């Protein structure tokens, strides 16, 4: 079974790679919507942002196309850790994660463009618990001073150098990378009546 005419409302190379991995060749159309957050609950935040991105891109698409919007956050003790703006901020975030379990939430919005504006949509989130080994101050400093943490929620990428510090995870690995593709695939099948 092939799902066609998929538009990914994201510039994330990791999300594109994950879709390609499951046999979906997306067109990339980056959303430029001004993100508005009305909640501080991680699961609600990611669904809200994913919906805004998907709706922004879907507004200019034609019937039969499927638009996917997504947003990922890292949270510890219910506090959302965004992308670090400085290496010092990355050091603080990695220090918070060291030796602890935190959560990665990814919200996904899928909009199937219908005839005459009758669109179908699904919005959901996935959560993965990630346990990090205790890091030494030197390990935290060296990682934080690299460029790897600078464009990633929570200041790390599970698929990069930081993998050496991941003790384990409970849930979807792909979700931690930024797109829970197994759940997404099931939603796409249902929306397309397959």
UniProtKB/TrEMBL annotation:
Compartments where located: Cytoplasm
Top EC category: hydrolase
Coiled coil ranges: none
InterPro entries referenced in this protein's UniProt entry, alphabetically: ITPase-like_fam, Maf-like
Classification via CDD domains: Maf
EC number: 3.6.1.9
Cytoplasm found in the keyword field: yes
Keywords: Cytoplasm, Hydrolase, Nucleotide metabolism
A Pfam family this chain is assigned to: Maf
Keyword Lipid metabolism among UniProt keywords: no
Cofactor entry: a divalent metal cation
Reactions performed catalytically: dTTP + H2O = dTMP + diphosphate + H(+); UTP + H2O = UMP + diphosphate + H(+)
Residues at the site labelled Important for substrate specificity: 14, 72, 159
Entry annotation: catalytic residues: 71
The family this protein is said to belong to: Belongs to the Maf family. YhdE subfamily.
Purpose: Nucleoside triphosphate pyrophosphatase that hydrolyzes dTTP and UTP. May have a dual role in cell division arrest and in preventing the incorporation of modified nucleotides into cellular nucleic acids.
Stated name of the protein: dTTP/UTP pyrophosphatase
Organism listed in the record: Enterocloster hominis (ex Liu et al. 2021)
Taxonomic lineage of the native organism: Bacteria, Bacillati, Bacillota, Clostridia, Lachnospirales
């Amino acid at each position: 079974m092939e799902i066609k005419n998929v538009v990914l409302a994201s510039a994330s190379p990791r999300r594109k790679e994950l879709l390609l991995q499951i046999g979906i060749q997306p067109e990339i159309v980056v959303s430029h919507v001004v993100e508005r957050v009305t909640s501080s609950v991680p699961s609600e935040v990611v669904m809200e942002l994913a919906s805004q991105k998907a709706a922004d891109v879907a507004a200019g698409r034609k019937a039969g196309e499927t638009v996917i919007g997504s947003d990922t956050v890292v949270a510890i003790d219910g506090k959302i850790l965004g992308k670090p703006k400085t290496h010092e901020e990355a050091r603080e975030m990695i220090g918070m994660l060291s030796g602890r379990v935190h959560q990665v939430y990814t919200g996904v919005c899928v909009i199937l463009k219908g005839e005459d504006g009758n669109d179908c949509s699904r919005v959901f989130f996935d959560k993965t618990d990630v346990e990090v080994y205790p890091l030494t101050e030197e390990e935290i400093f060296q990682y934080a001073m690299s460029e790897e943490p600078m464009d990633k929620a929570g200041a790390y990428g599970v698929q990069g150098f930081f993998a050496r510090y991941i003790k384990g995870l409970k849930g979807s690995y792909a979700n931690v990378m930024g797109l829970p593709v197994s759940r997404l695939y099931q939603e796409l099948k249902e929306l397309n009546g397959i």
